[in-house]
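Could you help me review a protein record that somebody else here produced? This is what I was given.
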Amino acid sequence: MKAYINAHGAGENLGHVLAEENAVMMAKLREAFSMWYTGGHVNENDPNTCLLRIRLTDGLFSNDMQQTNIDFVKQSV
């Protein structure tokens, strides 16, 4: 069975990954994505490498049997 999710949201640039205000979050992300992150895929010294937050607002989950609307703001389906 195939399943899909389509979602809408807003992106927010939180600044450079080495910015002091991003240190705690980046430590967590480096650990969570360590297999991918340390493989040379990220250049933290690039001034255009930023931390992007995406706040989802709504979405639609669908599979072969059903479709479900998701409201991320109200945290309801």
About this structure: The first strand starts at residue 3 and ends at 16. The chain has one domain: 3-71. The mean pLDDT is 94.
